[in-house]
């Protein structure tokens, strides 16, 4: 059986139009024809599963470009955001008995986060359990005695944009041996303190220097005459 190719080429040029029906038939000479109309005797709708007709969207390219421009502008805006640690200050010392350190972060001079932004706080190089956080102000609790570092990273949609330089601070909570307040105020009743704590002197020390050992000796009796 012969296949008439010219109408077939016309068929492939026409498949882009929606709602197009394709017909086929065989003429008296055994040549198969394809057409978008039933022009021959015994023509039937052709079964061509490999071909599809799709409605085109003339605005698709413009819409794609606009979406790309919006994403680029949003990324550039996020990249210009600058986090800054307001608290703790560099070399600041905290003496809270509960080990509490107030933390505050500013983004481009304000304490507000935009949509998609979060902050990860790093204490001594490790993220705190609350990270990432939507808060620019919080309190760290149970910070142990000693020297520590804190930094804050600004995230946009889960990706880190910029991180602050680590700030060094110190936690020196009061202890029973050396409490914070060394002044004693009494109200005159039995010498009881009124709202203040007196530091207990260090054992064996006087004015910060080792005390002179004291010997409890009994005077010897005069020799018999």
Concise synopsis of the structure shown:
The protein is of the alpha+beta class and 225 residues long. It has two helices and 15 strands.
Notes on the structure:
Strands 6, 8, 9, 11, 12 and 13 form a six-stranded mixed beta sheet that branches. A four-stranded mixed beta sheet has the order 1-3-2-4. The chain is an alpha+beta fold and 225 residues long. It has helices at 5-14, 60-79; strands spanning 2-3, 23-26, 31-35, 44-45, 83-87, 92-94, 101-107, 117-123, 126-127, 137-140, 146-156, 159-163, 167-171, 205-206, 209-210. Residues 4-18 and 182-220 have low confidence and may be disordered. A hairpin with a 2-residue loop joins strand 11 and strand 12 (159-163). The chain is built from two helices and 15 strands.
């Amino acid at each position: 059986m012969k296949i008439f190719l010219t109408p077939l080429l016309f068929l492939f040029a026409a498949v882009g139009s929606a709602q197009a029906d394709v017909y086929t038939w065989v003429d008296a000479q055994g040549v198969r024809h394809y057409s978008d109309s039933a022009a021959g005797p015994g023509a039937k709708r052709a079964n061509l599963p490999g071909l599809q007709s799709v409605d085109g969207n003339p605005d698709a390219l413009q819409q794609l470009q606009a979406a790309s421009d919006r994403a680029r502008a949003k990324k550039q805006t996020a990249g210009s955001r600058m986090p800054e640690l307001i608290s703790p200050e560099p070399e600041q010392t905290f003496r809270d008995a509960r080990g509490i350190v107030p933390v505050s972060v500013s983004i481009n001079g304000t304490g507000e986060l935009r949509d998609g932004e979060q902050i990860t706080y790093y204490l001594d190089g490790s993220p705190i359990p609350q990270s990432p956080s939507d808060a620019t102000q919080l309190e760290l609790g149970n910070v142990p005695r000693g020297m520590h570092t804190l930094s804050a990273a600004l995230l946009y949609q889960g990706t880190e944009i910029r991180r602050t330089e680590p700030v060094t601070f110190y936690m020196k909570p009061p202890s029973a041996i050396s409490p914070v307040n060394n002044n004693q105020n009494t109200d005159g009743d039995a010498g009881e303190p009124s709202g203040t704590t007196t530091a207990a002197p260090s054992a064996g020390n006087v004015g910060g220097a080792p005390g002179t050992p004291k010997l409890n000796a009994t005077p010897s009796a005069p020799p018999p005459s």
